[in-house]
TrEMBL record:
<feature type="transmembrane region" description="Helical">
    <location>
        <begin position="82"/>
        <end position="101"/>
    </location>
</feature>
<feature type="transmembrane region" description="Helical">
    <location>
        <begin position="249"/>
        <end position="266"/>
    </location>
</feature>
<feature type="transmembrane region" description="Helical">
    <location>
        <begin position="272"/>
        <end position="291"/>
    </location>
</feature>
<protein>
    <submittedName>
        <fullName>MFS transporter</fullName>
    </submittedName>
</protein>
<keyword id="KW-0812">Transmembrane</keyword>
<feature type="transmembrane region" description="Helical">
    <location>
        <begin position="113"/>
        <end position="138"/>
    </location>
</feature>
<dbReference type="InterPro" id="IPR020846">
    <property type="entry name" value="MFS_dom"/>
</dbReference>
<dbReference type="InterPro" id="IPR011701">
    <property type="entry name" value="MFS"/>
</dbReference>
<feature type="domain" description="Major facilitator superfamily (MFS) profile">
    <location>
        <begin position="10"/>
        <end position="419"/>
    </location>
</feature>
<dbReference type="GO" id="GO:0005886">
    <property type="term" value="C:plasma membrane"/>
</dbReference>
<keyword id="KW-1133">Transmembrane helix</keyword>
<feature type="transmembrane region" description="Helical">
    <location>
        <begin position="187"/>
        <end position="206"/>
    </location>
</feature>
<feature type="transmembrane region" description="Helical">
    <location>
        <begin position="159"/>
        <end position="175"/>
    </location>
</feature>
<feature type="transmembrane region" description="Helical">
    <location>
        <begin position="303"/>
        <end position="322"/>
    </location>
</feature>
<dbReference type="GO" id="GO:0022857">
    <property type="term" value="F:transmembrane transporter activity"/>
</dbReference>
<dbReference type="InterPro" id="IPR005828">
    <property type="entry name" value="MFS_sugar_transport-like"/>
</dbReference>
<keyword id="KW-0472">Membrane</keyword>
């Protein structure tokens, strides 16, 4: 009974950090889909401007491996807790500065350049944060519940996206379109400062993990974690990255690209699109820990693989439902897509962490997660937009997502189940 409050604080620390950081990330992603084409790339037609805005979206993913390398090294050398506090602070400062950026009208080409630089730093911080949030729960918690424990951190993206969606929906409801473009888009960035302060308070009170303390006492910490992972655990990197590509593409298509598709291509209201994404985010957030717990009982491969197969099928129903322009069917398309994503995302954190030993687990999990993010979610909105421009049909976009999910299916088929293995 004495462990329950500690377990609750650990879960909160895992959730709050990733929630706040993905709130920052999601605010950027949604504004890239809604207004950044006008604010930072105004000399292009709407679809080309959106493509350029999504190019800066990709920068946030391209910089994640940089954060994975830097903070992965620090996490295995100096501890999980140290990195978790540092990355949260860095993300908060960067996002606050985004709210102060001048637009293209007042600063010219310097405006998108500054946007890209801040986006790069933001992505690096997020790339270093994820593994720490996962290991905080995995290395502290019950070894028979690693799937459920690790899934707390996995709720962050959906909760953060939900928080970002709700804040932007509220602002667009309260302000006129002209007011939103003039200054209202800055408000969600500034709100991040208060959220980061709360996250810092929670995380500073969390102790270092027992497994990391153990290797400290045994003087068995890795001196060069990144090179050790690349030399000795490259197969695990491929496995961890391969299972991430499919759900990443599905998530980016369901959240970032669908927002642009509904508002720019189909001409539907932002309110409808954001409402559908909010409901999808609720379904995603509350099913992630359930599927994570289910993977403790049935195995990671079974639950993860079922999600990949269902996602592959649903991608070909997704756009026909959106194109009906019927609110109920649009909500159905997004809710089902994000629930299927939760089937993969719930077991994902534990699955990746289990591929690496404690001495290089932070570096290995960070690299696997962030490198796959580039070829998965990072370029997905940009590739989807380009495919739509080139072929003029969303079937090409669905085929792209299906191919990514097929890669995940293949990796899951050939890898060994480790759900019941002991972590060293």
């Amino acid at each position: 009974m004495a462990e329950r409050p500690a377990a609750g604080r650990l879960a909160t620390a895992s959730i709050v950090g990733t929630t706040l950081e993905y709130y920052d990330f999601a605010v950027y992603n949604m504004l890239a889909a809604l207004v950044f084409n006008k604010l930072f790339f105004p000399s292009f037609d709407p679809l080309s401007g959106t493509l350029l805005a999504f190019s800066t979206f990709a920068v946030g993913y391209l910089s994640r491996p940089v954060g994975g390398v830097i903070f992965g090294h620090l996490g295995d050398r100096y501890g999980r807790r140290f990195v978790l506090v540092a990355t949260l602070l860095l993300m908060g400062v960067t996002t606050g500065l985004m709210g102060l950026l001048p637009t293209y009208t007042s600063a010219g080409i310097a405006s998108p350049i500054m946007l890209v630089v801040l986006r790069f730093i933001q992505g690096a911080a997020l790339g270093g944060e994820w593994a720490g949030a996962v290991l905080l729960s995995v290395e502290h918690g019950d070894p028979l519940r690693r799937g459920r424990n690790a899934s707390w951190a996995q709720m962050g993206p959906s909760l953060g996206t939900l928080l970002a969606t709700g804040s932007i929906a509220l602002i667009t409801w309260l302000l006129s379109p002209d007011e939103f473009i003039a200054w209202g888009w800055r408000i969600p960035f500034f709100a991040s400062v208060a959220l980061v302060a709360f996250g810092m308070w929670i995380r500073v009170g969390v102790d270092e993990t027992p497994l990391f303390k153990q290797i400290e006492q045994q003087h068995s910490k890795a001196h060069a974690p990144i090179s050790e992972v690349v030399r000795g655990h490259w197969r695990s990197l491929i496995v961890g990255g391969g299972v991430r590509i499919g759900p990443d593409v599905l998530y980016s298509l369901s959240v970032a690209f669908s927002l642009s598709y509904l508002t720019t291509v189909l001409g539907l209201s932002r309110t409808l699109a954001l409402t559908a994404l909010s409901l999808g985010g609720v379904a995603n957030a509350f099913t992630i820990p359930w599927f994570g717990g289910l993977s403790d009982r049935l195995g990671r491969r079974v639950v993860y693989g079922a999600g990949a197969v269902l996602g592959l099928i649903w991608m070909f129903a997704f756009f026909p439902l959106l194109e009906t322009k019927q609110p109920a069917l649009i909500v159905l398309a997004i809710v089902v897509a994000l629930t299927v994503h939760a089937m993969m995302y719930g077991p994902q954190a534990a699955f990746i962490a289990e591929q690496f030993p404690t001495r290089v687990r932070y570096a290995g999990a960070s690299l696997a997660y962030t490198l796959a993010g580039i070829v998965g979610g990072g370029i997905a909105p940009m590739v989807s937009t380009a495919l739509l421009q080139r072929f003029g049909t969303p079937i090409a976009v669905s085929s792209y997502a299906a191919l990514a999910l097929l890669i995940t299916c293949v990796v899951l088929f050939i890898v060994r189940e480790r759900a019941r293995d002991q972590l060293d």
